[in-house]
Design a protein that fits this description.
By secondary structure, the chain is an alpha/beta fold. It is 37% helix and 19% strand. The two termini are 15 Å apart.
Length: 246
Amino acid sequence: MRIIGHRGARNIWAENSLSGFRNVCGLGVDAVELDVHLSSDGEIMVIHDPLLERTTDHKGPVARLSREALRKVKLHDTLSETIPTLPAVLDVFAPTNIELEIEMKMDAFGNPYPGLLDKVIALVRERGLAARVVLTCFVPEVIEEIRAKAPEMRRLASVDRRSCEAFGGVDRTLKRFVDLGCIIAVEQSLLRLALDRAIAIVGRDKLGVWVPNTVGDLDHWLGQPVSQITSDRPDLALQLLSARAK
């Protein structure tokens, strides 16, 4: 069972922040999930939303501002930290053995960023981290592009109710991503309803769940035939996993 910190560990420290990433390194997680967008001048920025409102003191699309302008954007719940760049985040994790799940996000209009995937692939290869990186997305076409451009890197597809509705149901969605050679992480309420079908289609070795955060939910999924748990409270997940091993 692999434990993955979601956006670092967003229920403990500010999500997708350098301080959060530094802190999560000390927990013993197997991997950390993070999200990337592009600035107006093509810098890879680590932030979940395409808009700044929820997690910063600014408003508007991330893509509207340059890297230099984004240096003035302060993250909530930090001591004046700004949105990190992907190179800065890779600097944090490079000395560790922690794997990284890097999610390709869409822009404020729901479209892929031109050139984002190419930039991420090039940077990961340049840093010699291809074996430790999983490239992820909700969008099948982006997963197809990942397979074509970076066949040596693992791929992960995230699945929730909205994506299943868009792609023709649970079975069809899972089969589509299985055909693309993906690890598949399913939102927990959906997976509770479709666990048997998911195991039959995906196989337990490539099936994950996100984001159980309570003791009850985490304890439940630690007892299920899935291979990884992505949580905003990876500390709790690790404590419960350790207790089960005693």
